[in-house]
Write a structure and sequence with these properties.
By secondary structure, the protein is of the alpha/beta class. The chain has one domain: Aminopeptidase. The chain has 5 helices and 9 strands. β4 and β5 form a beta hairpin. α3 packs across α5. It comes from Sphingomonas hengshuiensis. Keywords: Hydrolase. One of its GO terms (molecular function) is hydrolase activity.
Length: 235
């Protein structure tokens, strides 16, 4: 199974974490050093603990991926060239050179998105929050990323605009569609939120801020307050 479902009584909110895990099934050999799976190329560092903690704080349901983005990137469309990455931030992933694309989609990508579709249809949340993290600096030709948090979105700005304002008013260095644009990298929310007319936003936290429990606790409080603010603004 490529997803974990966390039950919650709140029906107006759904949390997602596409890059929650660095797990690789035993029958898949990526041909890389295991230590690479602990880097940002293998998992959104800190995103899963924040999502779990936030779900508990808000009594909200959450869906978390259970497979590494190096096996298949669940936050990409099935026809995206980076769906099964052969290189990531300068690291070759030789085991993906001959991967059976259709088989991996059927095994991981399709079930994950079926679960999202089913839960969204069943609950019809008024707000979807997707939790991610980003590295302070890419290994290959990267510049320092000064933002503490980024707010990513595509065409629907109903949740994004108040989210940016809330975070900036809270004194946080906030990227508006930064460190990369949600107009380019917003596959899951495009498919399950925007296509269904549901306000949504992707929150990207710089991963050095959520590597430790204290940081997770701090960002849980920040995002819990943000979620409450957005619920009020969208009511």
């Amino acid at each position: 199974m490529s997803a974990e479902w966390i039950e919650g009584s709140a029906r107006d909110l759904l949390l997602l974490c596409d890059h929650a895990s660095n797990a690789v099934p035993a029958d898949i050999d990526l041909g890389i050093a295991p230590a690479l799976l602990d880097l940002h190329i293998g998992v959104d560092i800190g995103a899963a603990p924040v999502t779990r903690s936030l779900a508990a704080a808000l009594d909200a349901p959450a869906i978390l991926a259970t497979v590494s983005r190096l096996v298949i990137d669940l936050h990409r469309e099935p026809d995206h060239p980076g769906l099964i990455p052969r290189h990531s931030d300068g690291h070759a992933i030789p085991g993906n050179e001959t991967a059976d694309r259709a088989a991996r989609i059927a095994r991981f990508h399709a079930p994950y998105h079926r679960l999202l579709r089913h839960q969204i249809r069943a609950r019809r949340p008024r707000l979807i929050l997707s939790i991610h993290s980003f590295t302070p600096r890419l290994e290959q030709g990267g510049e320092d990323r000064p933002w503490e948090v980024g707010v990513l979105y595509n065409r629907d700005t109903r949740a994004a605009r108040p989210a940016v304002a809330f975070l900036r008013d809270s004194g946080l260095v906030t990227g508006d569609n930064a460190p990369y644009s949600g107009r380019l990298l917003n596959a899951t929310l495009n498919r399950h939120a925007e296509a269904n007319g549901i306000p949504s936003v992707a929150i990207e936290i710089r991963n050095d801020l959520i590597r430790e429990p204290a940081g997770v606790a701090r960002w849980t409080r920040i995002l819990a307050d943000l979620a409450k603010n957005l619920r009020n603004s969208l009511a």
